Amino acid sequence: MPKTATLPAPIRDSWLPHLALGVTGHRATNPAYSAHAAAIGAALEALFARIDAICAGLPGERGPVRLHSLLVDGTDQVAGERALARGWELAVPLPFGAMLNCAINAHPETLADVDALLAGRPAANPAVEAKAAAIRAITARARMFELADRDAEIEALWRAHLAAPEDHAAARAFDALASDNVALAGRVMIEHTDLVVAVWDGKVANLPGGTGHTVAEALKLGAPVLLIDPARPDTWRILGRPEELGVPADPAAAPDFARLEAIIRAAVVVEGWSPAQLAEEQWRPTSSRAFGLYRRIERVFGGAGGALGSLKVTYEAPEAIVAGSGAEVVAAAASMPGGDPAVVRELTEDVLPLFAWSDGIASRLADAYRSGMCVNFVLAALAVMVGIFYLPAGMKESKWGFAAIELLLLGGILTLTAAGSRLGWHRRWFAMRRVAEYLRHAPALLLLGVARPTGRWPRVGGAAGGIAGGGAEWPEHFARHALRDVGLPRVTATREYLRAGLEQIVLHHVSAQRRYHIDKAHKLETVHHRLDKVAESCFALAVASVLAYLGLKGAGAMGLVDKHLAGTLSPLFTFFGVAFPTLGANLSGIRYFADFERFGAISHVAAEKLREIEERIGLLLSGAPEALTYAAAADLIHALDEAVVEEIASWQSVFGAKHLALPA
Length: 664
Fold this sequence. Notes:
By secondary structure, the protein is mainly alpha-helical. It has 2 domains: about 20-200 and about 210-270, Rossmann fold; about 280-655, no CATH class. The protein is about 60% helix and about 5% strand. The chain has 23 helices and 8 strands. The chain has helices spanning about 10-15, 30-35, 35-55, 75-85, 100-105, 110-120, 125-140, 150-165, 170-190, 210-220, 255-270, 295-300, 325-335, 340-390, 390-395, 400-425, 425-440, 440-445, 475-485, 495-555, 565-595, 595-620, 630-655; strands spanning about 20-25, 65-70, 90-95, 145, 195-200, 225-230, 235-240, 490. The protein has an 8-stranded mixed β-sheet with strand order 7-6-5-1-2-3-4-8, with helices on both faces. Helix 10 links the parallel strand 5 and strand 6. Helix 12 (about 295-300) crosses helix 20 (about 495-555) and helix 17 runs antiparallel to helix 23. It starts with 8 loop residues before the first helix and ends in a 9-residue tail after the last helix.
């Protein structure tokens, strides 16, 4: 095994940020659209050309723009055609399985045409077949993620409606379920985009799955919306908050190209940072022998045994994780019914190795930073004790030697502190740990097409997350684009697919992480409690030594002991009176700095959240089959993602301001 490993393939070869757009808009039959269809098409073409020009002018390399669309007729298909013509990628979260989606959106009026379309045959009605052919033609060139888990229910309701057009209850039942799935597909689209382009007249916003509903949902999730008025498509405005929907557009306002560029730049560029700077981080196969004090303290005071055993930790190599700790995940992903081999390949070749790489680097940096601070406290205590040890040793004439050793110890503190600051142990650890934790649960997200909306990623201010002087938010940017590089899986998300994903990927991960946090919380609380007891004992011994000296002094004055005994032992009592409080104070300093108790509490909270998610998954899997829907599965994965991000935020709130510093 090599001593160091350079950048893994996701960064070195294939990783590139993608600008991700979403599009929604009126159907071709909408009067506002049909009256201005040609102008809307021209406006979309001009907008896409402007976006390409903006991307070309930004620093760094990028992958092709990726457009997400539900590909219904009208705005969606026009935008999709223009995106493909520009060499963009087209990703389609379909609200139904591909065949059912094609059939529903072709708007057949007879069950015979329904049967033909569902069987892959041409519809008898030429107008219906023309619509179906257009859908087939464009979806054949797209990456499709099909929400097919409720197809049987939706098809049954649709047939009932077509069989009895006068039955309004049947129509409402079909419309309600179909609209819910369209809204769900719209949310999937929003989660994967940086900017939503909407062609909307602003009239109806409360129809689930409709354009207005999608616009409102995008703003709610923090995605900006570029809103095109179909009556005046050559002008548009950008909305960033839901409240702006109630603000009338200024008809005299020109398109805000500066804001468009700012949104695109923020989506794909971190100012002052580039992935090439990660080359400065080197993965090593084992922990550092020089920085093991923090883990030694955990071992000694944690009650797990082996207090004096080896502290060497072997990190899993990026190239070994697929056959090691990631073997079960890879096997489960490969066995999912109708799974996407490309996503499995991305997990195997890119995502899991990247996680192992960042996790190993973060662990080694954590050792350097935390052990460095613990060493400072130990050196500070030794400096004080060595500085006065000449008293009990009876070596006053050699005081200069003890002073010299004290100076060396103090110099060691200054040197270590300066080295830690110069090498950026704290900020580099923070950054790499965030990358690793965001990627730890990546298989659950990627295999089920779930993403954290761009507007919901944490914002990290200051230099805490910087690397090599780069931007503080680069770990979030990097992790988001590393996941986005994989994109939506090309799968038909049936109930069987969802069950396999929840049972074999999500539940396994949640259970393992819950057990980890329970064990971690117990260990950290034990360390905190025992350090507390030892520090208290040191102060008790200091009090005892002072009382002993005063007792001897008093006994000598009363003639109970030799009155010179207290004076003879005075240097020793002076040493104890200084050494014990110093040692106790520095142990308390280590306990405060490491914050074992609060970290234990954070793990307790994380374990409780994961327990709740674990139980919810169990209930969903053991309940009625029809309850297992994509919406339910996605909610659970979002809950997992939220628990991870909240734990990272709690962890940062504890250690964020605790830079390597002089012990005080």
